Amino acid sequence: MQDSGRDATQPSTEALRDQVDSLLEVFEQQRRDLADAQSAIASTTVTAWSSDKLIRVVSNAAGVPVEVHVEPEAFKRSTPDKLGRSITEAVQAAARLALEATRQAVAPIEASGEGIPDLSDLVPGAPSIRDLVRTMFPEPATPQDQPASLDEESEDEYYRNRSYLRDRP
User: Which residues, including other chains, have CB under 8 Å from residue 70's CB and lie 6 or more apart?
Assistant: First the structure.
């Protein structure tokens, strides 16, 4: 009679074994995808320009500027305030591009995990790993509430009142 009990549990044991094997295959694929993503992220740089084409920023995948280039005519065509806004604009644009590049590198990992249960599905009250991953990529700042650029009259006034000889003896 015990043999018939074993025979009854054999299909469920096989099904469980198949599920575990399937989860292990997904895990191994995610591990490979993670290594590929880490490699891609480590070598990723992005380039962004300010809208006035005076500032170019190269950032790494974390959005940290690794190079800032100022066009030589920037000092002739712009004021320090405008130049500061241009730098901010280019840095923020590079950060957004870096975020997108990082998301694309991580996308295969997220896609392969869609078919497996989340930690919160398996353990009641546990945090969701998927939600945690989503919070790893906050949106970078956008140029909001920046002061308006100087109008032509204000810009003329700025240059009229500036003395390049003031600091000379």
Answer: 54, 55, 83
